[in-house]
Protein backbone atom coordinates (compact mmCIF):
# COMPACT_ATOMS: atom_id res chain seq x y z
CA UNK A 1 0.00 0.00 0.00
CA UNK A 2 1.14 3.55 -0.71
CA UNK A 3 0.87 5.73 2.37
CA UNK A 4 1.39 8.86 0.26
CA UNK A 5 -1.48 7.90 -2.03
CA UNK A 6 -3.69 7.09 0.95
CA UNK A 7 -3.38 10.70 2.14
CA UNK A 8 -4.46 11.99 -1.28
CA UNK A 9 -7.33 9.51 -1.38
CA UNK A 10 -8.44 10.61 2.07
CA UNK A 11 -8.48 14.21 0.90
CA UNK A 12 -10.80 13.64 -2.09
CA UNK A 13 -12.87 10.87 -0.50
CA UNK A 14 -13.90 12.39 2.83
CA UNK A 15 -17.31 13.54 1.67
CA UNK A 16 -18.96 16.91 1.00
CA UNK A 17 -18.26 18.39 4.42
CA UNK A 18 -14.62 17.52 5.08
CA UNK A 19 -13.33 16.52 1.64
CA UNK A 20 -11.04 18.88 -0.24
CA UNK A 21 -9.84 19.40 -3.77
CA UNK A 22 -6.28 18.47 -4.65
CA UNK A 23 -3.89 21.16 -5.73
CA UNK A 24 -2.10 20.79 -9.04
CA UNK A 25 1.02 19.07 -7.72
CA UNK A 26 -1.06 16.67 -5.61
CA UNK A 27 -3.20 15.74 -8.61
CA UNK A 28 -0.06 15.13 -10.66
CA UNK A 29 1.39 12.95 -7.89
CA UNK A 30 -1.82 10.91 -7.56
CA UNK A 31 -2.00 10.36 -11.31
CA UNK A 32 1.65 9.39 -11.46
CA UNK A 33 1.21 6.82 -8.69
CA UNK A 34 -1.81 5.33 -10.46
CA UNK A 35 -0.09 5.17 -13.83
CA UNK A 36 2.95 3.49 -12.30
CA UNK A 37 0.75 1.15 -10.22
CA UNK A 38 2.45 2.37 -7.05
CA UNK A 39 -1.03 2.67 -5.54
CA UNK A 40 -2.80 -0.62 -4.86
CA UNK A 41 -5.80 -1.73 -6.96
CA UNK A 42 -8.11 -1.00 -4.01
CA UNK A 43 -6.68 2.51 -3.71
CA UNK A 44 -6.93 3.19 -7.44
CA UNK A 45 -10.55 2.05 -7.65
CA UNK A 46 -11.50 4.00 -4.53
CA UNK A 47 -9.82 7.15 -5.86
CA UNK A 48 -11.55 6.91 -9.23
CA UNK A 49 -15.05 6.57 -7.80
CA UNK A 50 -14.46 9.19 -5.07
CA UNK A 51 -13.03 11.63 -7.59
CA UNK A 52 -16.00 11.06 -9.89
CA UNK A 53 -18.48 11.74 -7.09
CA UNK A 54 -16.60 14.86 -5.99
CA UNK A 55 -16.06 15.99 -9.62
CA UNK A 56 -12.61 17.12 -10.77
CA UNK A 57 -11.58 20.75 -10.87
CA UNK A 58 -9.67 22.47 -13.65
CA UNK A 59 -6.62 22.63 -11.39
CA UNK A 60 -6.77 18.90 -10.74
CA UNK A 61 -7.10 18.17 -14.45
CA UNK A 62 -4.09 20.40 -15.11
CA UNK A 63 -2.07 18.34 -12.63
CA UNK A 64 -3.26 15.09 -14.17
CA UNK A 65 -2.16 16.39 -17.56
CA UNK A 66 1.24 17.22 -16.07
CA UNK A 67 1.64 13.53 -15.18
CA UNK A 68 0.51 12.49 -18.68
CA UNK A 69 3.08 14.85 -20.18
CA UNK A 70 5.80 13.36 -17.96
CA UNK A 71 5.04 9.67 -18.49
CA UNK A 72 3.07 9.51 -21.72
CA UNK A 73 4.16 9.41 -25.36
CA UNK A 74 4.71 12.56 -27.35
CA UNK A 75 5.05 12.87 -31.08
CA UNK A 76 7.78 15.36 -31.90
CA UNK A 77 7.37 18.58 -33.91
CA UNK A 78 7.32 17.89 -37.63
CA UNK A 79 8.38 21.35 -38.77
CA UNK A 80 4.90 22.38 -39.89
CA UNK A 81 4.13 26.09 -39.94
CA UNK A 82 0.61 25.25 -38.80
CA UNK A 83 -0.45 24.11 -35.35
CA UNK A 84 -1.23 20.41 -35.44
CA UNK A 85 -4.95 19.74 -35.08
CA UNK A 86 -5.56 17.18 -32.30
CA UNK A 87 -9.05 15.68 -32.67
CA UNK A 88 -9.95 14.17 -29.30
CA UNK A 89 -12.95 11.89 -28.80
CA UNK A 90 -14.24 9.84 -25.82
CA UNK A 91 -12.27 6.62 -25.65
CA UNK A 92 -15.36 4.51 -24.97
CA UNK A 93 -16.54 5.07 -28.51
CA UNK A 94 -19.81 5.63 -30.32
CA UNK A 95 -23.11 3.79 -30.06
CA UNK A 96 -25.77 6.07 -31.55
CA UNK A 97 -24.31 8.29 -34.26
CA UNK A 98 -21.82 7.66 -37.04
CA UNK A 99 -18.32 9.03 -36.29
CA UNK A 100 -17.24 11.78 -38.68
CA UNK A 101 -13.73 12.61 -37.45
CA UNK A 102 -11.80 10.08 -39.62
CA UNK A 103 -13.29 11.75 -42.70
CA UNK A 104 -12.60 15.17 -41.19
CA UNK A 105 -8.98 14.19 -40.60
CA UNK A 106 -8.53 13.06 -44.21
CA UNK A 107 -10.03 16.30 -45.53
CA UNK A 108 -7.84 18.50 -43.33
CA UNK A 109 -4.69 16.46 -44.02
CA UNK A 110 -5.41 16.54 -47.76
CA UNK A 111 -5.35 20.33 -47.50
CA UNK A 112 -1.84 20.12 -46.02
CA UNK A 113 -2.71 20.64 -42.35
CA UNK A 114 -1.45 17.96 -39.92
CA UNK A 115 -3.89 16.02 -37.74
CA UNK A 116 -3.33 13.72 -34.74
CA UNK A 117 -5.93 11.43 -33.16
CA UNK A 118 -5.63 9.10 -30.17
CA UNK A 119 -7.57 6.32 -28.49
CA UNK A 120 -7.74 2.62 -27.72
CA UNK A 121 -9.91 -0.44 -28.23
CA UNK A 122 -13.50 -0.97 -27.11
CA UNK A 123 -13.63 0.39 -23.62
CA UNK A 124 -15.98 0.28 -20.61
CA UNK A 125 -18.49 1.38 -19.70
CA UNK A 126 -20.04 2.24 -23.04
CA UNK A 127 -18.08 -0.28 -25.14
CA UNK A 128 -18.87 1.78 -28.23
CA UNK A 129 -17.20 1.69 -31.62
CA UNK A 130 -13.65 3.08 -31.24
CA UNK A 131 -11.96 5.13 -33.95
CA UNK A 132 -9.13 2.63 -34.33
CA UNK A 133 -11.65 0.08 -35.66
CA UNK A 134 -12.99 2.63 -38.14
CA UNK A 135 -9.46 3.23 -39.42
CA UNK A 136 -8.90 -0.50 -39.72
CA UNK A 137 -12.05 -0.73 -41.81
CA UNK A 138 -10.62 1.98 -44.06
CA UNK A 139 -7.44 -0.04 -44.54
CA UNK A 140 -5.22 1.69 -41.97
CA UNK A 141 -4.07 -0.29 -38.94
CA UNK A 142 -2.46 1.98 -36.38
CA UNK A 143 -2.29 -0.76 -33.75
CA UNK A 144 0.92 -2.39 -35.06
CA UNK A 145 3.02 0.74 -35.38
CA UNK A 146 5.66 1.87 -32.92
CA UNK A 147 5.54 5.51 -31.84
CA UNK A 148 8.58 6.15 -34.05
CA UNK A 149 6.69 4.73 -37.03
CA UNK A 150 3.67 6.90 -36.27
CA UNK A 151 6.09 9.84 -36.21
CA UNK A 152 7.27 8.92 -39.71
CA UNK A 153 3.73 8.57 -41.03
CA UNK A 154 2.76 11.93 -39.52
CA UNK A 155 5.77 13.64 -41.09
CA UNK A 156 5.09 12.22 -44.56
CA UNK A 157 1.28 12.19 -44.70
CA UNK A 158 0.16 14.84 -42.15
CA UNK A 159 -1.80 12.20 -40.25
CA UNK A 160 -0.99 10.25 -37.07
CA UNK A 161 -2.73 8.16 -34.41
CA UNK A 162 -1.49 7.43 -30.89
CA UNK A 163 -2.83 4.01 -29.87
CA UNK A 164 -3.14 3.63 -26.12
CA UNK A 165 -2.29 -0.10 -25.65
CA UNK A 166 0.83 0.17 -27.81
CA UNK A 167 2.05 3.69 -27.09
CA UNK A 168 0.88 4.44 -23.54
CA UNK A 169 0.60 1.09 -21.71
CA UNK A 170 0.56 2.78 -18.29
CA UNK A 171 -2.69 4.56 -19.12
CA UNK A 172 -4.05 1.43 -20.79
CA UNK A 173 -3.39 -0.41 -17.54
CA UNK A 174 -6.06 1.72 -15.85
CA UNK A 175 -8.79 0.75 -18.32
CA UNK A 176 -10.02 -2.36 -16.39
CA UNK A 177 -10.93 -0.14 -13.46
CA UNK A 178 -13.59 1.53 -15.57
CA UNK A 179 -15.36 -1.79 -15.87
CA UNK A 180 -14.87 -2.65 -12.23
CA UNK A 181 -16.28 0.62 -10.87
CA UNK A 182 -19.03 0.71 -13.50
CA UNK A 183 -18.66 4.43 -14.18
CA UNK A 184 -16.50 6.77 -16.21
CA UNK A 185 -13.72 8.11 -13.97
CA UNK A 186 -12.28 11.63 -14.39
CA UNK A 187 -9.64 10.06 -16.66
CA UNK A 188 -12.39 10.04 -19.29
CA UNK A 189 -12.39 13.85 -19.11
CA UNK A 190 -8.61 14.01 -19.01
CA UNK A 191 -8.39 12.17 -22.33
CA UNK A 192 -10.35 14.95 -24.02
CA UNK A 193 -7.68 17.44 -22.94
CA UNK A 194 -4.61 15.39 -23.75
CA UNK A 195 -2.49 16.33 -26.75
CA UNK A 196 0.32 13.80 -27.39
CA UNK A 197 2.35 16.29 -29.42
CA UNK A 198 5.39 18.29 -28.32
CA UNK A 199 4.94 21.14 -30.80
CA UNK A 200 2.33 23.82 -31.41
CA UNK A 201 -1.13 22.28 -31.27
CA UNK A 202 -4.82 23.09 -31.49
CA UNK A 203 -6.55 20.56 -29.23
CA UNK A 204 -10.22 19.97 -29.97
CA UNK A 205 -12.17 18.73 -26.94
CA UNK A 206 -15.73 17.48 -27.17
CA UNK A 207 -18.10 17.67 -24.23
CA UNK A 208 -21.70 16.92 -23.28
CA UNK A 209 -22.36 18.86 -20.08
CA UNK A 210 -21.56 22.62 -19.75
CA UNK A 211 -19.62 22.21 -16.46
CA UNK A 212 -17.16 19.99 -18.34
CA UNK A 213 -16.37 22.80 -20.75
CA UNK A 214 -15.54 25.12 -17.85
CA UNK A 215 -13.15 22.51 -16.41
CA UNK A 216 -11.48 22.17 -19.81
CA UNK A 217 -10.96 25.90 -20.10
CA UNK A 218 -9.57 26.19 -16.57
CA UNK A 219 -7.10 23.36 -17.16
CA UNK A 220 -5.88 24.81 -20.46
CA UNK A 221 -5.45 28.25 -18.91
CA UNK A 222 -3.46 26.93 -15.96
CA UNK A 223 -1.11 24.86 -18.11
CA UNK A 224 -0.54 27.51 -20.78
CA UNK A 225 -0.81 24.74 -23.37
CA UNK A 226 -1.85 24.25 -26.12
CA UNK A 227 -1.31 27.29 -28.32
CA UNK A 228 -4.94 27.02 -29.41
CA UNK A 229 -7.90 24.97 -28.27
CA UNK A 230 -11.43 24.36 -29.44
CA UNK A 231 -14.33 23.05 -27.35
CA UNK A 232 -17.34 21.48 -29.06
CA UNK A 233 -20.66 20.28 -27.69
CA UNK A 234 -20.46 17.47 -30.19
CA UNK A 235 -22.07 14.16 -31.06
CA UNK A 236 -21.87 11.82 -28.06
CA UNK A 237 -19.29 14.11 -26.49
CA UNK A 238 -16.98 13.95 -29.51
CA UNK A 239 -15.51 16.74 -31.62
CA UNK A 240 -18.02 15.98 -34.43
CA UNK A 241 -20.28 18.96 -35.10
CA UNK A 242 -23.99 18.11 -35.16
CA UNK A 243 -26.31 19.00 -38.04
CA UNK A 244 -29.64 18.65 -36.27
CA UNK A 245 -29.00 21.50 -33.82
CA UNK A 246 -26.89 24.58 -33.31
CA UNK A 247 -23.32 23.71 -32.41
CA UNK A 248 -21.97 25.30 -29.22
CA UNK A 249 -18.29 25.98 -29.80
CA UNK A 250 -15.48 27.68 -27.90
CA UNK A 251 -12.57 29.13 -29.88
CA UNK A 252 -9.66 29.55 -27.51
CA UNK A 253 -6.05 30.67 -27.39
CA UNK A 254 -3.68 29.43 -24.71
CA UNK A 255 -0.61 30.98 -23.17
CA UNK A 256 -0.19 34.43 -21.68
CA UNK A 257 -2.84 35.93 -23.97
CA UNK A 258 -5.48 33.37 -22.99
CA UNK A 259 -8.97 34.06 -24.23
CA UNK A 260 -12.12 32.21 -25.29
CA UNK A 261 -14.64 33.30 -27.89
CA UNK A 262 -18.10 31.73 -28.00
CA UNK A 263 -19.47 30.64 -31.38
CA UNK A 264 -23.03 29.39 -31.92
CA UNK A 265 -22.94 27.71 -35.31
CA UNK A 266 -26.32 26.94 -36.89
CA UNK A 267 -26.16 24.49 -39.82
CA UNK A 268 -29.31 25.96 -41.36
CA UNK A 269 -27.50 29.28 -41.87
CA UNK A 270 -25.23 27.49 -44.35
CA UNK A 271 -27.87 25.15 -45.81
CA UNK A 272 -26.41 22.16 -43.94
CA UNK A 273 -29.25 21.38 -41.54
CA UNK A 274 -30.13 17.70 -41.58
CA UNK A 275 -29.99 14.45 -39.67
CA UNK A 276 -27.03 13.17 -37.73
CA UNK A 277 -26.48 9.82 -39.38
CA UNK A 278 -27.29 6.93 -37.02
CA UNK A 279 -24.67 4.28 -36.41
CA UNK A 280 -25.60 0.92 -37.91
CA UNK A 281 -23.28 -2.03 -38.46
CA UNK A 282 -19.58 -1.22 -38.74
CA UNK A 283 -19.36 -2.77 -42.20
CA UNK A 284 -22.17 -0.51 -43.38
CA UNK A 285 -20.48 2.55 -41.89
CA UNK A 286 -17.21 1.73 -43.66
CA UNK A 287 -19.01 1.24 -46.98
CA UNK A 288 -20.74 4.61 -46.55
CA UNK A 289 -17.41 6.29 -45.70
CA UNK A 290 -15.78 4.79 -48.78
CA UNK A 291 -18.68 6.15 -50.85
CA UNK A 292 -18.22 9.60 -49.30
CA UNK A 293 -14.54 9.52 -50.29
CA UNK A 294 -15.68 8.86 -53.86
CA UNK A 295 -17.81 12.01 -53.79
CA UNK A 296 -21.13 10.51 -52.69
CA UNK A 297 -23.64 13.20 -51.74
CA UNK A 298 -25.25 11.27 -48.88
CA UNK A 299 -26.17 12.63 -45.46
CA UNK A 300 -22.86 11.25 -44.18
CA UNK A 301 -21.10 13.13 -46.96
CA UNK A 302 -22.89 16.32 -45.98
CA UNK A 303 -21.78 15.82 -42.38
CA UNK A 304 -18.20 15.29 -43.56
CA UNK A 305 -18.29 18.55 -45.52
CA UNK A 306 -19.84 20.41 -42.57
CA UNK A 307 -17.14 19.19 -40.22
CA UNK A 308 -14.29 19.38 -42.73
CA UNK A 309 -15.21 22.92 -43.69
CA UNK A 310 -15.34 24.08 -40.09
CA UNK A 311 -11.99 22.58 -39.18
CA UNK A 312 -10.32 23.89 -42.33
CA UNK A 313 -11.48 27.34 -41.29
CA UNK A 314 -10.36 26.75 -37.69
CA UNK A 315 -6.92 25.65 -38.93
CA UNK A 316 -6.55 28.85 -40.94
CA UNK A 317 -6.79 27.20 -44.35
CA UNK A 318 -9.41 29.74 -45.44
CA UNK A 319 -10.72 33.14 -44.43
CA UNK A 320 -14.30 32.15 -43.58
CA UNK A 321 -16.50 29.14 -42.98
CA UNK A 322 -18.32 29.39 -46.31
CA UNK A 323 -15.00 29.10 -48.14
CA UNK A 324 -14.03 26.19 -45.91
CA UNK A 325 -17.20 24.32 -46.79
CA UNK A 326 -16.56 24.84 -50.50
CA UNK A 327 -12.98 23.66 -50.09
CA UNK A 328 -14.01 20.58 -48.09
CA UNK A 329 -16.53 19.59 -50.74
CA UNK A 330 -13.93 19.98 -53.49
CA UNK A 331 -11.40 17.84 -51.58
CA UNK A 332 -14.00 15.06 -51.45
CA UNK A 333 -15.51 15.31 -54.91
CA UNK A 334 -12.18 15.82 -56.69
CA UNK A 335 -10.56 12.85 -54.98
CA UNK A 336 -7.89 14.51 -52.82
CA UNK A 337 -9.28 13.08 -49.58
CA UNK A 338 -9.39 9.59 -51.09
CA UNK A 339 -5.85 10.06 -52.35
CA UNK A 340 -4.83 11.09 -48.82
CA UNK A 341 -6.21 7.82 -47.47
CA UNK A 342 -4.22 5.91 -50.08
CA UNK A 343 -1.11 7.89 -49.21
CA UNK A 344 -1.36 6.86 -45.55
CA UNK A 345 -2.01 3.24 -46.53
CA UNK A 346 1.09 3.26 -48.72
CA UNK A 347 3.23 4.91 -46.04
CA UNK A 348 2.31 2.23 -43.51
CA UNK A 349 2.79 -0.54 -46.07
CA UNK A 350 6.21 0.91 -46.83
CA UNK A 351 7.17 0.72 -43.16
CA UNK A 352 6.20 -2.95 -43.06
CA UNK A 353 8.20 -3.60 -46.22
CA UNK A 354 11.25 -1.85 -44.79
CA UNK A 355 11.06 -3.98 -41.65
CA UNK A 356 10.89 -7.16 -43.73
CA UNK A 357 13.84 -6.10 -45.84
CA UNK A 358 15.84 -5.26 -42.72
CA UNK A 359 15.04 -8.63 -41.16
CA UNK A 360 16.02 -10.42 -44.38
CA UNK A 361 19.33 -8.62 -44.81
CA UNK A 362 20.08 -8.91 -41.12
UniProtKB/TrEMBL annotation:
Give all residue intervals belonging to the Glycosyl transferase family domain: 96-337
PANTHER family, alphabetized:
ANTHRANILATE PHOSPHORIBOSYLTRANSFERASE, SLL1634 PROTEIN
Matches recorded under Pfam families:
Glycos_trans_3N, Glycos_transf_3
- Give the superkingdom in one word: Bacteria
Asked if the keyword Nuclease belongs to this entry, the reply reads no
Specify the protein name: Anthranilate phosphoribosyltransferase family protein
| Keyword Transferase (UniProt) | yes
List the GO molecular function terms. glycosyltransferase activity
Query: Which keywords belong to this entry?
Result: Amino-acid biosynthesis, Aromatic amino acid biosynthesis, Glycosyltransferase, Transferase
Q: Where is the Glycosyl transferase family 3 N-terminal domain?
A: 6-71
Entry's SUPFAM superfamilies?
Nucleoside phosphorylase/phosphoribosyltransferase catalytic domain, Nucleoside phosphorylase/phosphoribosyltransferase N-terminal domain
Amino acid sequence: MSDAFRELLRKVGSGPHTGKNLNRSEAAAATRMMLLQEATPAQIGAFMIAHRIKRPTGEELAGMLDAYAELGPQLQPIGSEQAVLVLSSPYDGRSRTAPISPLTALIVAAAGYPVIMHGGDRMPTKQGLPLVEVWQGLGIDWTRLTLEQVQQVLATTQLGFVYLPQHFPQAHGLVPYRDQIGKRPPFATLELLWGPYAGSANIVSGFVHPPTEVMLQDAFQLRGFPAYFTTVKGLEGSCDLPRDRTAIIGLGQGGADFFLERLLLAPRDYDFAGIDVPLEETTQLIAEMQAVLQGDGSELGRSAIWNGGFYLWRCGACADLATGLTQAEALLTQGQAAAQLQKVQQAIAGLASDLQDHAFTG
